[in-house]
Amino acid sequence: MTEKTLQEQEAIREKVRAGYSEIAETGALSCCSPATEPVSACCGGSADGLAQELGYDAVDLAALPEGANVGLSCGNPTALASLSEGETVVDLGSGGGLDVFLAAHKVGPTGRAIGVDMTPSMLTKARRNTVNFVQQTGLDNVEFRLGEIEHLPLPDNSADVITSNCVINLSPDKPQVYREVFRVLKPGGRLAISDLALLRPLPKTVEEMVAALVGCVAGASRMDDLRVMVTEAGFTDIELTPEPVFTEAQQASQGGLWNEIARHLPADLKPSDYVTSLNITAKKPA
Ligand SMILES: C[S@@+](CC[C@H](N)C(=O)[O-])C[C@H]1O[C@@H](n2cnc3c(N)ncnc32)[C@H](O)[C@@H]1O
Q: Is the distance from CB of 136 to CB of 38 less than 8 angstroms?
């Protein structure tokens, strides 16, 4: 784990923000990957097809405001979180609001679901979706805040659960993200993350591809490093479970980015030999 200077970190955030601004403004592209083909080219044929492969319920998806699912997920952290009525949930890198709206249903009118995202156009999209969500459900328990997950716009000890879906890999300072999550969770609070992780180091050419960074691959950490980050932030009951549904679907679909990455790998290896989707759960001690 080499630390990046503040300038290097900002340069990475700028590339990531530019990539997701383009996605928010031009419509969803393919599966956590700003490739050139539309989302229908991979992972079950649509954003909802991908989500169902990841374990989302078709009925829950159909009840979402149109456009909340932008097809950028790689897991199902809301299911992992086992939410209860009345809980406060914070979703890191909330995009169009998919997991925030689903969480809002689960925590109900006495709970709260808050999305944080650093890309203004993603936030605009999510806030437009909120208007429809309130009209459709009568629930007024959703909020989206502009901010970086390394500097959460939330008070100490204020959330019961923190979720995140395919986002922390994009952060240039992941140990700081886990420290922030620990600060914001209440004692006894839980972490439920879906993300991508590396199984072996990527070739330098892939590490340096902007599309592979924005596509959630080049910035991913090794599983051992993730465990150290979560432990050093103070969490207990840490579980890292590879859940390669997403990465296998990408591999099978041979989408634009994965094809491009494959061209930089030795002939006997494929992208899913390097990267896996995984779940991370942990608790802040009570
Ligand atoms: C791959 S998309 C996932 C969106 C959403 N979680 C989903 O599953 O549909 C990544 C999102 O994280 C946001 N993001 C990336 N890095 C971030 C950071 N350092 N702080 C806050 N948001 C970030 C991006 O703007 C984008 O909306």
A: no
Number of domains in the chain: 1
- Residue 46's pLDDT is 83
Ligand 1, CB within 6 Å, residue ranges: 13, 16, 20, 32, 70, 72-73, 93-96, 98, 117-119, 122, 148-150, 165-167, 170-171, 216
- Is the alpha carbon torsion for 220, 224, 226, 229 positive or negative? negative
What φ, ψ does residue 87 adopt, rounded to 5°? -80, 155
Residue whose C-alpha is closest to residue 192's, from 225, 217, 218, 168? 168
- Residue 218 lies in domain: 6-283
Helix (H) or strand (E) holding 193: strand 185-198
pLDDT at residue 26, as a whole number: 87
In contact, 210 and 15? CB cutoff 8 Å: yes
Task: Give the chain's radius of gyration (CA, Å).
Answer: 17
Is residue 127 one of the residues assigned to a domain?
Answer: yes
Q: In terms of Cα–Cα distance, which of 165, 87, 117 is closest to 16?
A: 117
Whether 21 is in a domain gets the answer yes
**Mutational pocket test of ligand 1: of 20, 91, 146, the residue with most ligand atoms within 8 Å of the beta carbon:** 20
Rounded to whole angstroms, the Cα distance separating 58 from 245 reads 17
| Residues linked to residue 195 through DSSP beta bridges, in sequence order | 278
- Is residue 66 situated within a structural domain? yes
Looking up residue 237, the CATH number of its domain turns out to be: 3.40.50.150
Least trusted range by pLDDT, from 41-50, 76-85, 121-130, 189-198: 41-50
**Atom 23 of ligand 1: nearest residue by CA position:** 93
How far is Cα 176 from Cα 25, in angstroms, rounded to an integer? 29
Would you say residue 1 lies in a domain? no
Q: How many CA atoms lie within 13 A of 234 on its CB side?
A: 18
| DSSP letter assigned to residue 167 | -
Between helix 120-137 and helix 98-107 the angle, nearest 10°, is 40
